[in-house]
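Hi everyone, sorry if this is the wrong subforum. Our group has a chain we'd like a structural model of before ordering constructs, and none of us has done structure prediction before. Sequence below.
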Amino acid sequence: MATTIEDIQYEEMLSERFHEAVMRNEALKQCIYIFVEGESEEATFQTLLENNTCGLDLKLNGIVIANYNGIGNLKHAIRMLRNTLSHDRPIIVTFDDDPEGKKVGKYLEHPLIHPFRIPHEPVVTYADGSQGGSFEEAFSKQTFIDACFQTGVIEPSSPGTATEFMVEFDDSKPWFPQIARYVVSKGGHAGSINKVHLAKAMASICEYIPDTFLELARKTVELRKNNPILHPDDVDL
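Answer:
Right subforum, don't worry. Here is the predicted structure as tokens:
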């Protein structure tokens, strides 16, 4: 039986779909990790980075967000990573640029590790005189204040309003401790503030993607460009 144009087109379609499936699997195998400090970051980074402004497609580009569960665990996560002989791709390690975060530099001295401060540029001044910030300070002051009073962030029994809080808010000092003190002053408990809900609220109501995440997206794209996903048959003999 003679081969028809339809037969050739069908074979080409199957070949193309097979190649796409192979490359999807390789994207995961050859993933670039973005290490994040906690649940707040884990819950929001994908939303922020895949926003139209940043334009990343994490799955397509083989980007995996991994939570190292607190700055105190970072050195252990890095040590395990270095002992993984199969690891040969860059990793972006994000961390709050607060007094604790400033201590981790010595653990990140490795050619494949790319440190990334959150926020990317200093925003507040700490009691020790150092400047920096944390996840909350990556956003605008107004976004933070409005997010604090979204449903599920502060317990309903705590009275208070965003307008009232704004009057006493000082954006040159660490932000989260200020909302914690405000809640306590209203008879609430600082520990009741849901930081994950706060993070999600900031990510959802911000009018524009903060520069920190635009820069993180740019860095991620650059690293993937320099470390492209290879077909498993693409080997040096």
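For your construct planning: The chain has one domain: 22-226. Helices lie at 5-29, 39-49, 74-82, 141-148, 162-168, 175-185, 195-205, 211-226.
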